[in-house]
# Entry
Amino acid sequence: MTTTTPSRGRRRAPSRMERAAGRAAALQRPRVILALLLLLALVCVMLLDGYLRAEVGGDQRVRTGASSSDVPDDVLNGGPIVTFRGGQATTVSVPDRTIALTFDDGPNPTWTPEVLEILEKYDVPATFFLVGSMVSRYPGIVADMVEQGHEVGIHTFTHVDLSYQSDARVRREMEQTQLALAGAAGITTTLFRAPYSSQTDAIDNYSWPVYKKLGQDGYTSVFVDTDSDDWKRPGVAKIVQWATPEKNKGASVLFHDAGGERSQTIAALPKYIEKMRAKGYTFTTISGVMEKQQAPAGAPQAGGTRLQAAHREATGAILYEGRALVAAVTVAEWAVPTLSVGLMVVGVAVMGRFGMMLLLARRHHRQRNRRRFSWGPPVTRPVSVIVPAYNEKECIANTLHSLARSTHPIEIIVVDDGSTDGTADIAESLGMPNVRVIRQANAGKPAALNHGVRSARYDIVVMMDGDTVFEPDTVRQLVQPFADPEVGAVAGNAKVGNRTTVIGAWQHIEYVMGFNLDRRMYDLLRCMPTIPGAIGAFRREAVLQVGGMSEDTLAEDTDITIALHRAGWRVVYQEHARAWTEAPGSLKQLWSQRYRWSYGTMQALWKHRKTMTDKGPSGRFGRVGMPLVVLFQIVTPVFAPLIDVFTVYAMIFVDFQASLLAWFAVLGVQLLCAAYAFRLDREKYRYLLMMPLQQLAYRQMMYLVLIHSCVTALTGGRLRWQKLKRTGEVGTPAGAG
# Structure
């Protein structure tokens, strides 16, 4: 055994690398918080979008036959305008030959502008009772409405029957609509019309307390004298007929500018206006009616802003809160449909990827397992196995003992990267004759691997992690592809050894389904993006040709794999070369590892971005491998968890049963792919029982990790080789299974 030992003191000061790692680690918490805030913002946007569509809490029950014993007779038999000045309910009727033209359920982007155009043409004022959610979605229409001199009132925020709701819900419906009006047109209003209301004689003991409470808050409730019933679409003639008051009486007349297809309303409105004017009627707003009734006999009619007397200028907090609401709704209106389209594209891409993986994995398995398949003459010459180690005291003995049982001749080079836990001493104490321990000051994993490559005696080097164990036949299987002189590197089959926990089982599924099925596909396409650090073999000359392991990225394994492609070497996958590795045992460690992987992959892809325009083997990776990695290892993993979020969104706001069935259908496809991957690797199917939970929890975490990585990339952050806490529980392959 050969040992290279630099001089050391009793206590070693932190190295530059360690100090850099410490500084970088200190930056992680803000980035994690930012990632969580981004997810929270998305959830809030989706909840707002769903709430705007009035699918949550919507209550469209219509009550018949309820008692009205608590309602004063003066109200039941009075006019359509109910005020509570001085705490006493008072009704106001519309004067003869006067029409208070009112519209419900708007604004609507199709029909409301057409209504406004007709009213402007005939110079007719009207009162629009607006749904707050629609106001926040189409604020420009409301601003135009107010500017043209029309009056607006509240029709609740979500078009809900308030008589069924709690006091808090009633207050929320009113306040939110006022905020929407403030944000859209800079005003608030004192007018209110309840959804599903009609004439005052329909007020009952359930709804009366709501009107009284709103009256105490300063609201005027507006009902209907004459209903056009245009929502029934009976035809233009019927709408005009039904909207005409009897015997030249005045009336509060109801039309609808939203809530359905309103082409008949648009056609009937000009005819109705012309007919009423021919009969000597004048048109006014609700405030105009109240002004006319309260004015002394013979006084001139009020006009101008008095037709909008119910409006109040929005100032202070309510104005800014209203603008914030409108801005948030604008974001939701843009973001949710855009994400929906994006997810449809991603869904098609993911399903296509599953299909491509299954076809190519099957072809790969059949091709490599044919009886006559051979890479060439058997490779029997010795190889060098490099084990970079940093504080691996729990695992290093198991790793070296597994290598000692190798059926292929090897030399073992343990490169101790400044361990402080006695890792090198443990390796030396084992007394293995074919083991060399090389000590170096802490410089990171790439430097340790490069040190090992330079010190290797043989032309093939196998690289493995210090927490990994090999089967006796692993090295022999791993090096056989080097019989083909075009092969520069070989990726082995990494297995999760500590799979008895929930986190371990999730990673086991990911390794078998995601990593190994992917590698079969990439192998056939000749664009393998990554040789796993746990098990990989290289031609020594190929590693030296590309400059060794680079410290430019956090994913040195991905970096050198792409570099080998660019240099013209072929990279293949050897499924029969198995290594058992200890996966992270906690969510914190898993986050740290996957963050490094995903961010490192981004760094490597950016570093080798010129492959997109290169020619030859480098260009092949750039035009085939690069798009596949970007699409399926960065883009779709970010969006795939959103499928679950949108599923929950659809369950709450759209169709629960259909959404649930769609989610199970996608899960079924994934289970099918996973089952086939388990069959190829001869794994036990029982672990697939954890897959539904993996989709609900694990994938969401991977989404946050990717956001974290993207934020780090945008802010220019950087990490060094991160050490995960190990337990040494992966002792032998048998024990790992």
Observations:
- The longest helix spans residues 316-368.
- Residues 73-327 form a domain with the TIM Barrel fold (CATH 3.20.20.370).
- Confidence is low (pLDDT under 50) at residues 1-27, 55-59, 732-737.
- DSSP finds 24 helices and 21 strands in the chain.
